[in-house]
Amino acid sequence: MGRDIVSLDDLTVNNLGVFKKINEVVLPTSYPEQWYKDSLNADQIVKLAYYSELPVAAIKAKTINTSHKAGTYEHMQQQQINSKIIPNAVYIESFAVLPAYRGVGIGKKLLDFIIEETKNKFVHEILLHVHIDNKTTIEWYEKHGFIKDDDIVKDYYKAQGLENPDAYILTLKV
Amino acid sequence: MVVAKKGSPIFQSKEDANFREALKLYDSKQYKKALKLVDANLKKNSNHAESLALKGCCNHFVGNKSEAEPYILKAIQKSPENYLVDHLAGIYYRTVENYEEAAKWLKAANDNGSPNKPILRDLSFMQTQIRDYKNLKDSRQQYLENQPGYRANWTAVAVAHHLNKEYSNAVSTLTKIEGIIREHLTEADRYEQSECALYKNSIIAESGDPAKALQTLEDDKDEIRDGLSYLEYKAKYLLMLNGYEEASVEYRKLLQRNSDNAGYYHLLELSLGSISKPLETRIKLYEKLSKFYPKSDPPKFLPLTFIPASNKAFETKAREYILPQLQRGVPATFVNVKPLYKNHQKLKVIEKIVTEFFENEVGKIANPTVHVWTLYFLAQHYLYLNDLEKASKFIDDALTHSPTLVELYILKAKVLKHQKEYVAASDIMNEGRELDLQDRFINTKATKYYFRANRVDEAINTISLFTKVEDGNVNGCKDLHLMQANWVLIESAEAYSRLYHEYQVKLEELKNSEDENEELEKDVVENIEIYRGLALKRFNAIIKIFKLYYNDQYDFHSYCMRRGTPRDYIDTLKWEDKIHSTPMYTRVLKGLSSIYFELYDEQIKKKEDDLEDNIKIKKANKKQKKVKAQANKKKSELIAKVESEKDDADPLGNKLLTDLAESDIIEDLYLLFKPLIEEGKDLRLTWEVLYKIYLIQGKYVLALQAIKSLNKILTAADDFKFKAVGAKVVELSETLSKDPKVNAAIAKVVEKSLVSTFPQFGELSKEAFLEIYSK
Lengths: 174, 775
Known about the structure:
Chain A is an alpha+beta fold. Helix content of chain A is 27%, strand content 30%.
């Protein structure tokens, strides 16, 4: 048996550029330089996925407490949980698979990793924002058990310059 | 140095006794104490030659270097036949790496009866260093007679004979010591024994007697530990002796050892005589070999080199070769087939195979990487054809598909480079580099591309990620010099050259423009000076490194004998004999020659200007001094970045530049090119530059010979009439007729020879001649 063609690996200071590149190419939103630097901190949940040794996807999440509502994309990215507050959810900040490498199970593998991490932290909820027009992504999450919250977050992506800047929140209980 | 007690000259005076005492101190490196004694001696008797010589040596070692050679010279002038003086002179010149003089005086010491036999050994090192093989034989032989108990000394004598092409003497020396030592060998000596046996064998073969070599090889079989060399030698001899079948057996054995060595396949075919057999037979042979060695590349690739493109089998085989590599995602697929591209028809077949695969098959394959590797292949293919538009399209598609694949950025940058977009190319290369900071390959590439875009600071900062950056240093520039990173040095030298030329153009523009802008002009002038100095400095750094390379062989003259590695030693000597014609060194010379010629033109112009207008320049100089003081502050920042060693005395190459500008530039350049007359006689650069030098120096006969040599090299491949030759013929003839000082007889000889070598020059008008020589 050969090795699995899809494998996961850690983010390091040397391949940070790859993480950045994948997000920049795939996602319509942008992340500040500091956000990337902070990705290397030990408390962050982050992983790269490789297809045939080529990095093609990346995910980043963090623990949050849902009682602190953040109404905009920028705020959501900046927010870091205070060590005194007990987290009750894992929030996915970025999740990107290069278009040419979709449909071969890479996203599922990264999601499984997040689910595993969530359980390890004794947290039972994963949540994220999705752009309201992004039908295929919403479908993908729903296919993997996420439930769409009917409430719309108004103007969530406004400062990012997206058309229809509203977002849905999707949740998965684990 | 040790003074033998017995047989040394009788010390007649107090001076001699003192001197002996001083010598002892000198030997134990107490130079200052030795100096005191010697000085006391010289006070009493200023003609005491030994003391003078010793003073010279001591002065050198206590750091008073300028006061060393005068004393040595005085000493050898006073009593050149005193072996102590000779020996000290030899030691002094060896220390300052003047091997010619060192050899001369060490030899004199020995000839004048010095009882100190290690002199002979030192002498032999000097003689090898200066390639005086004729005398080397004697010193090695004499030393062997003095110390026959060491095998190294026997090997050394054999090497000396070998270097003189006295093969039978070399072989008999080696055979003799083998016989003497055979009984006493321990396991630790086995390697040396094996190497010496193979060395002996290679000499026999070199002498042109493969039969005897083969016989000896078999006789020595038990001594030889290097099984690979044994097989290679044996197979080679068998081939030379027409023992084809036996040779083929040996080559099959060699293939079992290493089935990736393409050379073995060729030699196997040679021994099987299959090259002249029908194509099918050859194809079958390789199919069989490919089954034996399924993981090896040559049996799959080599048939593609000999099957004609028109044969159907070529397409089938090429398909079988290329497509699996694309499917596996082998990055080097294109590089693997590139050798076939010399044949345009084969190129076309391959283009068809890959294009068809891309259009019809790639979409059906589940693995997305096949898509990107195929795009990558096609981009390289069209880049090879210089179809930059198509190459760009394919590489851009590939980048859209897989923007995290580092190879794609390298290729994209390469395409941009061919489009002369050097800055954009370096940006792309850096973008690729940022994907994987650990990748030294792309780090190097990014550095090089920054240099090509004249972005020297960024280049050095990039490469500094992989150098040692000591405390207080802003980058790894010093480490790069220490590590002899020639490729960095030459790229930066060339970048600095381009930069100062850019500023020169700017200066011309400023001078021609309407509005005066003195401030800006000063700035530009200063930049020209700085970058020219730096270019000169970097080029010279490589010259220095090559001098080191040459000096480095010194240790091997004894080390290789003791280690018993004469075969590698001979290879090293041969390599050293050619280092001045290596691509790196000639690239340096090319860069330097253009700076030298430029400086020479300026020197001439300055002399003319000086005559014309003395006062004006003086005024300007005064002004410049003021400016310089201001600029010095700015400079210190720059200096921190470009220093080549700690406390660099001339960090910007300023002194180099001014020294050069005041020297005989053309003669200096000639000295740089002198080694190339032998080592680089097949290089175009050698004769192009030497011609120009000779022309300036008024050495017309030599200039003529340079043209002839150049013509010979250029026409060796194709019998064209080259512009580079024609223009020189005309130029030489015109210069001759204009030079009033030329000796009439010489002018006649050159003129005649020009006509006899280039008959059309005599028959046609200059214009018509140049039209013919226009390739």
